[in-house]
Amino acid sequence: MANAHIELIRELFAAGIMMPSGTIAEQRKAMELSSGALPVPDGVTVTPTNLGGRPAEWLGPAIDSGIDAGDSLVLYLHGGGYCIGSISTHRNLAGRLALACGGRVVNLEYRLAPEHPFPAAIDDVVAAYAELIELGHDPACIAIAGDSAGGGLTVTALLAIRDSTMVMPAAGVCLSPWTDLTQSASTWTTRADADPVVTKAGLDMMAAAYLDGGSATDPLASPAFADLTGLPPLLVQVGEAEVLLDDSVGLRNAALAAGVDVTLDVWADMIHVFQAFPPGMLPESDAGLARIAAFLDRHLG
Fold it and tell me: How far is 126 from 62, CA to CA, in rounded Å?
């Protein structure tokens, strides 16, 4: 039986109400007007800051919410194909993640293509992580997480940190990660009719902008082609009805081959980054965040 909530979302996307197509500039504006309009969740405080030379926001349970923020934190990387999205468009999701975890999330405004192509976004995440360490945060209490392109960026940032002199964070979380910028996996065909959110034409355009003439098989652009040895435990969540399903399956397989502790969590009927939808529209979104919180509780010191 079809999920009625998902069918309604499909109708909204088909009508161009939730995320119209168009140029990168047009998509940026549309995403700010739609996702950026979602309110900060009740019980969450937002504190603007700068991290690694980039704007960022601390989000955490309000003092009077009865939740102890503790020492653990999540460095969150928004989605948007490396070209659109911002801390504003993902403030609601980051705040809901903070509530689910009972801790703090720092939402990072990394640089976007085409103005700042690969590897600018990776450089920003690594700089932000380095500053967190300089500020005294224990790597054993830090996770890096992100959705879509931010999920792929989570993995490539972990690879860059691995190859640096810094201590690795304790965990990584990828929500519907975009890990293969060639758009050549089988679910691009088998899930094309089921996925209302992501199109090959759209990601081809964003990949070209991000790569700026570089190779789509560069392991730091497409972690599907990387050796993941040495990465911390990973949780990968993905919807069964999305074209990027194979990106998540491939990430799990590559992690297993490299000896990485990885959990692949495939959600029946769900679509791209289902966790970002308001729970009143899609009840499974809060359930997904709860499972992320449980994973982080097991791995963060």
Answer: 28
Residues that are catalytic? 148, 242, 272
Query: Around Cβ 50, how many Cβ atoms within 10 Å?
Result: 11
Q: What is the pTM of this model?
A: 0.95
Q: Is the pLDDT of residue 299 over 80?
A: yes
The CA–CA distances, whole Å, from 28 to 19, 51, 82, 197, 289 equal 10, 23, 11, 15, 25
Q: Are strands 44-51 and 54-61 parallel, antiparallel or unpaired?
A: antiparallel
| Separation of CA 203 from chain center | 15
Going by C-alpha positions, the residue among 257, 283, 254 that lies closest to residue 156 is 254
Q: What angle do CA 272, 278, 279 make, to 5 degrees?
A: 100
Contact 240, 270 (CB under 8 A): yes
pLDDT digits (tens, 9 = 90+) for 232-247: 999 999 999 999 999 9
CATH, domain range 4-299: 3.40.50.1820
Kind of pairing, strands 54-61 and 104-108? antiparallel
CA 48 from centre of chain: 20
- Rounded average pLDDT over 174-186: 98
Q: Kindly report the CA angle at 178 between 199 and 128, in degrees rounded to 5?
A: 130
CA atoms within 13 A on the CB side of 295: 28
Per-domain boundaries in the chain = 4-299
Long-range contact set of residues 31-34: C-beta below 8 Å, sequence gap at least 24: 31/80, 31/84, 31/85, 31/86, 31/89, 32/86, 32/88, 32/89
Residue with token string 């109400």: 17
Provide the pLDDT confidence category of residue 8 given band limits of 50, 70 and 90.
confident
